[in-house]
Amino acid sequence: xxxxxxxxxxxxxxxxxxxxxxxxxxxxxxxxxxxxxxxxxxxxxxxxxxxxxxxxxxxxxxxxxxxxxxxxxxxxxxxxxxxxxxxxxxxxxxxxxxxxxxxxxxxxxxxxxxxxxxxxxxxxxxxxxxxxxxxxxxxxxxxxxxxxxxxxxxxxxxxxxxxxxxxxxxxx
Length: 172
Description:
The protein is built from six helices and six strands; from the N terminus they run αβαβαββαααββ.
């Protein structure tokens, strides 16, 4: 019903915020396939917000990863899911369960566990928002918030690891 209501005004863009999160897996698949069919038939675009990265991978052409309200990585989904650059994106993707090939163990590629405290989102400290939790933090990260810049064609990242020349590592 919500999809039909949204389509009644013939939009070019539909914002879908956690559109399938309350559904079981088969219901999710049906709705996602409907979204894809509507996108192809009607030329729709979606701003699809989800915490489920498998859903994002399935439906998206382009993905923006956000941390505390800031985009930290933006790229075509096939690139983001195979070559994530930002340490936060790498940690997120490492947490997606993988079906094994029968030869490897779940311990071959363990999830990246992030340490450190989340900063107060109302009173953010200077510098990179991910600094306290970043396994690759450097001195510059504490003071300078990295801009979202091209690391490669169609691949933007907000991380000092990808600036030229790269800064010296943090002395912990």
